[in-house]
Amino acid sequence: MTVVAVDGLHEIIQRIESREARIGIVGMGYVGLPLALLFSEERFAITGFDIDAHKVGTLNRGGSYIVRIPGADIQAAQKNGFQATADYTRIGEMDVVIICVPTPLNEHHEPDLSFITETVKAMAPHLRQGQLIILESTTYPGTTEEVVVPLLEQGNPSGLRVARDAASPGFYVAFSPEREDPGNDTVARRDIPKVVGGCGPVAQDLASAVYATIFNRTIQVSSPAAAEMTKLLENIYRCVNIALVNELKQLCMRMGIDIWEVIDAAKTKPFGFHVFYPGPGLGGHCIPIDPFYLSWKAKEFDFRTRFIELAGEINADMPYFVVENVMEAMSQRGKALRGARVLVLGLAYKRDIDDLRESPSLTIIELLQQRGALVEYNDPFFASVGQGRKYALNMSSTPLERVPDFDCVVIVTDHSQYDYPKIVENSKLVVDTRNATKGIVATNIVRC
Ligand SMILES: NC(=O)c1ccc[n+]([C@@H]2O[C@H](COP(=O)([O-])OP(=O)(O)OC[C@H]3O[C@@H](n4cnc5c(N)ncnc54)[C@H](O)[C@@H]3O)[C@@H](O)[C@H]2O)c1
Asked: Taken in order 318, 323, 327, 333, is the CA torsion positive or negative?
């Protein structure tokens, strides 16, 4: 047995180094697809697994459904053997399987691990000796050891177990968090160090060897739980600091101080200060969600994560704060919100991306509508929006030429292709939640 395991190990390392290793990536979304393309650039033949037939079909036709990934990139990957499939029996062909499926919250604001558990259950019957399974989905510390490993072991008909050292037969398991920042091109993906925590030193080394082919640096931590916690620390750090500037923005407004001027001055400090900006509320699949994964897990240890909860409260209130400011700005101009025409600029949760998840724009539109406003939106990334997981807009993007028709234009997402001076010039009133109108002097701008 020992010999089989050691030989198998040697073989996988050779296959990784020679780029012959077959890598399967489960979940062809914002994380999984770019990861597949990175490996493909390194000449690995990648198989992308997804339950969404539309995504599988689009990829196999050489197309893309993510705006910043052109179809040409998919076609280039196809030349290196990239293909997509919904067929889990093909898991058995892979040497390495990386799981990048969603980890949302359920309606009670608790972790919803169903995507991970469904994936792992579907994979388990096809596992084989010596395979490496890596979870990348963001989750609470303990998920890999307490949820993924038992499901893989229980669902495997040949009784394979996780191998925790080179002497044991079985499959290897590791956790490695995804640290991508969509739309941020200041750091090349390769230059983002990759944190890896394995179930044992062999899994650790194998996972590091896989990632070392596409990342310039890998950081090894002692366990999957330490790697899971690393990702949460990073996102909670952002969440708490954004809440802090959001609170200070509200205080500054009351004191007649321009928070943006203060931030610009503070960020000149060459040490001890990392800049965060206020905004209309948190969005995306990570920052509004991940902290609550930890809060939930903390309860098991009779621990209350007070910082996280306070930050969550402040950030969740921001869309209400924006709507109050819209009402106030309109009433100062003798206009009621009820019956007023309001144009929301930007639906995406942040600048220059095509991602609507948890976007504060959606909440702001809903709150404005509840208060009787007639709301339309413009977003260059969404020509129309129908029914989502938590919203039903059923609207089409209003052309910017129609800006003069509105009583108020609310800048919620500061897409870089907007011509802000022109928008201000043509609007009756602009409420700017992002300081997108910085440097423009006009009496019809309210910054909040
Ligand atoms: N988007 C980001 O910027 C980002 C950054 C860091 C970490 N993350 C984390 O990465 C994970 C994935 O996020 P994402 O943004 O790529 O999500 P996504 O929704 O864009 O993609 C997930 C994909 O998984 C597929 N899927 C769901 N269940 C499946 C199953 N059982 N089998 C096969 N495929 C399945 C979906 O069809 C979808 O294509 C999450 O845990 C997220 O928190 C995301």
From this structure: positive
286 is known as an active-site residue? yes
Residue 4 has pLDDT above 70, yes or no: no
CA of 286 to the centre of ligand 1 (A): 11
User: Average pLDDT in the 292-307 region?
Assistant: 96
| Per-residue pLDDT, 10 | 80
- pLDDT score at 166: 83
pLDDT (tens digit, 9 = 90+) per residue, 369-386?
A: 999 999 999 999 999 999
Ligand 1 center–CA 100 separation, angstroms: 5
**What's the CATH code, domain 238-447?**
3.40.50.720
Distance from Cα 248 to the centre of ligand 1, integer Å: 34
- What is the position in ligand 1's atom list of the atom closest to the CA of 289? 43
12 C-alpha to center of ligand 1: Å?
27
- Lining residues, ligand 1, CB within 6 Å: 26-32, 49-52, 55, 100-103, 115, 118-119, 137-138, 178, 180, 182, 285-286
Which residue, by CA, sits nearest to atom 5 of ligand 1?
180
User: Residues 97-148: pLDDT tens digits?
Assistant: 999 999 999 988 899 999 999 999 999 999 999 999 999 999 999 999 999 9
CATH architecture of 2-222: 3-Layer(aba) Sandwich (3.40)
Give nearest CA residue, ligand 1 atom 31.
119
Atom of ligand 1 nearest to the CA of 33: 16
pLDDT at 5 over 60: no
Select which of 199, 252, 286, 448 is catalytic.
286
User: Could you tell me the residue ranges of all domains in the chain?
Assistant: 2-222, 238-447
pLDDT tens profile 174-191: 999 999 887 788 899 999
